[in-house]
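Quick one, probably user error.
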């Protein structure tokens, strides 16, 4: 049990028992004792005895007349009166001490009263048995009987009261009650013995002496008491003076001794301070060196340490360093972890990655954190690149396993690049660059681990050059838009266009989108480029809608990258493009790839709902090629579902391999979405899609993407986008009909 609770429990038990004893004693008081003598005795106990305690010099023992009063009440009025008197005396004594500055803890006054009552009651019970068994009659006038009775009272009172106090002190200090009793309580027996002696003297005077003798005895006792208190006071003063003189002598001697040791002590202190300062400087130096060369989060070596290590390997020459390999790795979509779970969980993931790497690698290898989610490793003394590849595969497997944090499984894929030391590496940045190039190659080819060769370096440098040129492509007017028609597969009506970006470099000529679009997304250039596309296409479609009443509902479909979808400014960019072109919002359709929408579904829902509130249309692009969660898909506010060309191309001449197309079209209908099929190149593909109920289509069968000038000419000519559909409805119609070439207004 908790000591505080045990102490409180003990106090309550004693208070309860003492209360029972006090109530019983009060109820059993004989009525004949109530007279002026007992009343005087009670008042004397209440007012005088608390003030008559005498402290024996240098003993810590108090001679209290309260015990004399209690013992006297035993032999004059009986045990019940003694119990009542001890309760009154203890209460008076506690109140007197409290008024003089003594502090009492919780329940301590009640405990003191109850413990005194309980001790006196136990003494009374023992005393009664003693008198019955011994046959002693202390009222007979025999001095020996009186001494025996009072002596037993003193012994019984001492043991009963000291045991209760010993148990209380044992609970407070944690020591055994027996040890406390021997050390602290045994010496207090003097109090009970002196009290018994005084009670015997007082009893003799009251019973056997006349009034004159009693008065003389009281007077003499008073003189003795006053003189004794004065003597004790003088003794205490004398002792204090002697002790003060001795202390002064000791202080003088100590001062002389201190003066004798002063120079040696000062020298020792100075030496100790110098030693402590040296130790502090050494610790500070070590701490600064550790902080300078280690990452504060993972406690792994940092980029500075890694560069120093690589410098050393370059200096010792290729003859030795050719056995070393550098691995560069980074986590994929680590930003999603921070955005979804918070930076605290992200930091824990980085720490766990550091620990996993240390467990996988050998003692002689070096692993360092070189960036936010980037790590570099130096593999030591390997026989071949194949051995380095095996270690990289192990790292990829271990780090691809999920992390369990706060009950959640967190997945974090990664890319690893491997680069061997080469004579061309003149500084650490060279080999780190090659390892990073290999990592980029692994990322682009979705292979997890990539190994560097010089062809990759050439491609990487070309990519850097393209990225540098792409930054100024908009300003230089090198970018342009091509438009591919979106056709209704039911009636062949022109619904709108998909806007496709093209780049014609002034020196390198036409650069395919598959080559520069990934560069734009990786570098973040896709965001300003998309803003330009929105302004350009919205303005263009607004102009084309004015060519003819039949074109008033034309729409333009613009691809939005996953990078831009994570920016809440996308809603503002679209609003500005619509406002500057004065285009009806429903004439703009934004295409978002399935993978981009699902990368952070909750954020996508928020941004797409914001776009939907503008009134624009939304289409999910390349459906079926990425990861889809139907629990999120039905929450995304898409109007149309675009079937990826890979499923359209698989359809055979007789309609075989069309099961996936059928499933996607059915799913779209259940989700109340329209469907668009891209990549339609043959009439058989078109027929299958029409039979399945696909709403719209685009592809080379209808038209390839055209520059705005050619597309505008086709609009003026009112071109038939599905000629076979026209021929079925009107076999006599001719493609070269004069009416067909006239513009429609």
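Nope, works fine. Designed sequence:
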């Amino acid at each position: 049990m908790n000591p505080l609770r045990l102490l409180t429990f003990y106090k309550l038990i004693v208070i309860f028992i003492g209360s029972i004893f006090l109530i019983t004693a009060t109820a059993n008081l004989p009525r004949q004792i109530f007279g002026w003598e007992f009343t005087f005795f009670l008042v004397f106990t209440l007012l005088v005895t608390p003030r008559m305690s005498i402290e024996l010099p240098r003993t810590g023992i108090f001679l209290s007349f309260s015990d004399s009063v209690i013992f006297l009440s035993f032999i004059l009025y009986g045990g019940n009166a003694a119990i009542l008197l001890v309760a009154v005396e203890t209460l008076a004594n506690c109140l007197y001490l409290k008024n003089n500055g003594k502090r009492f803890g919780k329940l301590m006054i009640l405990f003191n009263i109850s413990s005194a009552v309980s001790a006196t009651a136990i003494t009374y019970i023992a005393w009664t048995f003693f008198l019955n068994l011994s046959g002693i009659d202390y009222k007979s006038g025999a001095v020996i009987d009186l001494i025996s009775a009072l002596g037993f009272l003193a012994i019984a009172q001492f043991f009963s009261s000291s045991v209760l106090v010993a148990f209380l002190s044992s609970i407070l200090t944690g020591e055994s009650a027996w040890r406390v009793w021997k050390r602290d309580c045994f010496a207090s027996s003097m109090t009970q013995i002196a009290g018994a002696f005084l009670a015997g003297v007082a009893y003799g005077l009251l019973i056997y002496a006349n009034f004159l003798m009693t008065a003389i005895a009281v007077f003499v006792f008073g003189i003795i008491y006053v003189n004794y208190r004065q003597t004790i006071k003088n003794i205490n003063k004398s002792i204090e003076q002697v002790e003060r003189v001795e202390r002064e002598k000791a202080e003088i001697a100590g001062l002389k001794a201190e003066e004798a040791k002063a120079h040696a002590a000062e020298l020792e202190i100075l030496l100790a301070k110098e030693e402590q300062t040296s130790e502090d400087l050494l610790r500070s130096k070590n701490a600064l060196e550790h902080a300078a060369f280690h990452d504060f989060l993972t406690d792994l070596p940092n980029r500075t340490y890694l560069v120093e290590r690589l410098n050393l390997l370059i200096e010792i020459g290729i003859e030795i360093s050719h056995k070393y390999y550098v691995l560069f790795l980074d986590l994929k979509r680590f930003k999603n972890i921070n955005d979804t779970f918070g930076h605290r969980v992200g930091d824990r993931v980085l720490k766990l990655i550091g620990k996993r790497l240390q467990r996988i690698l050998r003692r002689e290898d070096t692993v360092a954190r070189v960036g936010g989610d980037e790590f570099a490793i130096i593999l030591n003394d390997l026989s071949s690149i194949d051995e380095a590849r095996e270690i990289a595969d192990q790292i990829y497997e271990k780090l691809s396993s999920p992390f369990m944090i706060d009950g959640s499984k967190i997945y974090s894929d990664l890319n690893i690049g491997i680069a061997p030391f080469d004579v061309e590496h003149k500084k650490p940045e060279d080999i780190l660059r090659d390892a990073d190039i290999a990592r980029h190659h692994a990322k682009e080819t979705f292979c997890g681990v990539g190994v560097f060769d010089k062809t990759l370096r050439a491609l990487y440098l070309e990519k850097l050059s393209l990225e540098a040129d792409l930054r100024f492509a908009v300003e230089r007017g090198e970018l342009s838009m091509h438009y591919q028609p979106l056709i209704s597969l039911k009636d062949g009506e022109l619904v709108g266009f998909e806007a496709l970006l093209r780049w014609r470099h002034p020196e390198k000529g036409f650069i395919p989108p598959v080559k520069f679009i990934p560069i734009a997304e990786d570098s973040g250039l896709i965001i300003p480029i998309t803003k330009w596309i929105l302004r350009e296409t919205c303005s263009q479609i607004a102009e084309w809608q004015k060519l003819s009443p039949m074109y008033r509902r034309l729409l333009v479909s613009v691809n939005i990258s996953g990078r831009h979808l994570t920016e809440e400014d996308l809603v503002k960019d679209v609003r500005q493009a619509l406002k500057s072109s004065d285009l009806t919002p429903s004439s703009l359709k934004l295409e978002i790839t399935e993978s981009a929408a699902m990368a952070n579904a909750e954020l996508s829902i928020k941004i797409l709902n914001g776009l939907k509130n503008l009134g624009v249309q939304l289409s999910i692009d390349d459906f079926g090629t990425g990861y889809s969660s139907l629990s999120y898909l039905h929450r995304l506010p898409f109007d149309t579902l675009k079937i990826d060309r890979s499923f359209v191309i698989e359809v055979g001449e007789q309609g075989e391999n069309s099961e996936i197309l059928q499933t996607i079209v059915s799913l779209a209908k259940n989700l109340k979405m329209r469907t668009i099929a891209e990549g339609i190149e043959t009439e058989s593909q078109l027929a299958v899609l029409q039979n399945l109920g696909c709403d719209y289509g685009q592809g080379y069968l209808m038209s390839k993407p055209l520059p705005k000038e050619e597309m505008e000419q086709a609009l003026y000519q009112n071109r038939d986008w599905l000629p076979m559909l026209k021929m079925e409805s009107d076999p006599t119609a001719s493609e070269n009909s004069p009416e067909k070439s006239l513009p429609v207004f």
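The chain has a mean pLDDT of 80.
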